[in-house]
Design a protein that fits this description.
CATH class of the largest domain: Mainly Beta
Shape: flat
Number of domains: 5
Distance between the termini: 9 Å
Strand order of the largest sheet: 2-8-7-4-5
Largest sheet: 5 strands, mixed
Structural class: alpha/beta
CATH superfamily of the largest domain: Cupredoxins -  blue copper proteins
Number of strands: 32
Number of helices: 10
Length: 541
């Protein structure tokens, strides 16, 4: 009996290893230190970090850095040795940057900011194909002892109401450690977050800010011990109390202290218009009907899904709403999808300021109250159960395919796309783009009259109508080399024989899905696990 138990246990372990090996792993470069100039003149810091790690095709490197302070540039071996980013393979300037290792061989990364590479901010990894060797534990994206804090909880990052000490009170009794993350939720264009010195904090002075993030929500990793100081540099905001000081220490958080959760349990995320998204409706009362009978509370989030350049969302006054006038808009977001946190009670008014859109019904009024939602009312879910997020090309992403003009045609084959599904195009900003075009534009690789063009990766496109959709990369030569995709979209639930999409779920702020995974490997992993578990159960019996 003991022999059977041992054999069964070994088979279970083997099955678990097989299952793990089919998924790409995520490594956070430098672990809690992140991607920066190494301390104490340690030129070998990233060399030491990569040592003894076993990188495979499909693994993902996450470079955590502050926008504007660093970047990550993939270069050739010559560029790596010379710290020369003049002819990069790719450059990512927005952190955190996620880079999928999609081929075997050597990869070379440096920071292109002058002086950073020569000071040790450079990384060389060797990638192979196959399973990891036993006994090597990969670096995890976040260590178990770190925590993500949403600054101000449901209030977010804004000028506090009649309480200069609001953020001081919020930080009180919290225990911050190196590696923890602060999330500043604010409306882009209305606020920002600047890290400053102690003197600048006391004087509300951002003249020599350490860093400034202008796009919300902003995520800042606490990467050193000591006091950290943050203010909003919009005139008058800091002096009115929009300032935060946190003390960071090293080690685990003390027991019994509950961290601030990213989202309170009583708040809800509503996708405006559900699968229809935010566009000119075929019914003037469409958004009024959508909001009817829903209960919005302070802290809830509205997600406006729209194509950048085709629509926007402007928060306006009641008069602006009635007159479809955004001349004195409270705020305007031009990049979709746009997330707006409802941070005050009363009526909130939103319109699309593109001429003619509001008057055609692209306008929304919501009444916000304080407290929990009433029982028995089901809020609009962010994604309906029947919709799916597909990562175009799976782990390969959106790029010029290698010696296979039909790569994306093969990828889309036998997939079942329905209205509301989302396509995620993973590409390096500046190296590629994704243009939705007509059938003629697709056949001719011509984006001159593109329906829309997204230039920032990863790009998310919601399939909001039935019929054929055509996408190409408009960089000269890319489409003709096979970087083009056609999908046929239908209405209704997908059939029971629909294959598994490229990723199990959408990648949202603060979450990640298993990279480097495709439907084939998922099926192999599942079937293998079932096979081995069946044998194990037989042996136990």
């Amino acid at each position: 009996m003991g022999g059977k138990s041992t054999m069964a246990a070994l088979l279970v372990i083997l099955a678990a290893n097989l299952l793990q090996s089919t998924y790409g792993r995520t490594y956070t470069v430098g672990d809690s230190t992140g991607w920066g100039i190494p301390a104490n003149n340690n030129d070998d810091f990233y060399d030491d970090w990569a040592d003894n790690k076993d990188f495979l095709v499909g693994d993902v490197l996450v470079f955590n850095f502050t926008n504007g302070q660093h970047n990550v540039v993939e270069v050739t071996e010559v560029g790596y040795d010379a710290c020369n980013a003049a002819n990069p393979v790719s450059t990512v300037s927005t952190g955190p940057a996620r880079i999928t290792l999609n081929r075997t061989g050597e990869y070379y990364f440096i920071c292109g900011i002058p002086g950073h590479c020569s000071a040790g901010q450079k990384l060389n990894v060797e990638v192979r194909n196959g399973n990891t060797t036993g006994g090597v534990t990969p670096s995890t994206p976040v260590t178990p002892t770190t925590t993500t804090y949403t600054v101000g909880d449901s209030t977010g990052w804004r000028v506090p109401t009649n309480n200069d000490d609001f953020y001081e009170d919020w930080a009180d009794n919290k225990h911050f450690v190196v590696g923890d993350v602060l999330v500043f939720n604010f409306t882009t264009g209305q606020h920002n977050v600047a890290e400053v010195t102690e003197d600048a904090y006391d004087d509300c002075n951002t003249a020599n800010a350490i860093s400034t993030l202008t796009t919300g929500p902003a995520r800042i990793t606490l990467n050193k011990t000591g006091d950290h100081y943050f203010i909003c540099s919009v005139p008058g905001h800091c002096s009115a109390g929009q300032k935060l000081k946190v003390e960071v220490r090293t080690g685990n958080t003390t027991g019994g202290v509950a961290p601030s959760p990213p989202v309170t349990p009583s708040t809800t995320t509503f996708t405006v218009g559900d699968s229809t998204g935010w566009r000119v409706p075929t019914n003037d009362d469409f958004y009024e009907d959508w909001a009817d009978h829903k209960h919005f509370v302070v802290g809830d989030v509205l997600v406006f899904n729209f194509t950048t350049g085709q629509h926007n969302v402007a928060e306006v006054t009641e008069d602006g709403y009635d007159d479809c006038n955004a001349a004195n808009a409270i705020s305007t977001l031009t990049t979709g999808p746009a997330r707006i946190t409802l941070n005050k009670t009363g009526d909130n008014y939103f319109i699309c300021s593109v001429p003619g859109h509001c008057s055609a019904g692209q306008k929304l009024k919501v009444e916000v109250r304080t407290g929990n939602t009433t029982g028995g009312v089901a809020p609009s879910p962010p994604v309906t159960p029947s919709t799916t997020t597909f990562t175009v090309g799976d782990s390969t992403g959106w790029r010029v395919p290698t010696n296979n003009d039909d790569f994306y045609e093969d990828w889309a084959d036998h997939k079942d796309f329905v209205v509301g599904d989302v396509l995620v195009f993973n590409f390096t900003t500046g190296q590629h783009n994704v243009a939705e075009v007509t059938e003629d534009g697709y056949d001719d690789c011509n984006a001159a009259n593109a329906i829309s063009t997204l230039t920032t990766g990863p790009a998310r496109i919601t399939l909001n109508r039935t019929g054929d959709h055509y996408f190409i990369c408009s960089i000269p030569g890319h489409c003709s080399a096979g970087q083009k995709l056609k999908v046929e979209v239908r209405n209704g639930n997908r059939t029971s024989t629909s294959p598994t999409p490229g990723t199990p779920s959408a990648a949202a702020p603060g979450t990640s899905s298993s990279p480097g995974t495709n439907s084939a490997s998922s099926h192999v992993a599942t079937l293998s696990l079932v096979f081995f578990m069946s044998i194990a159960m037989t042996l136990f019996c």
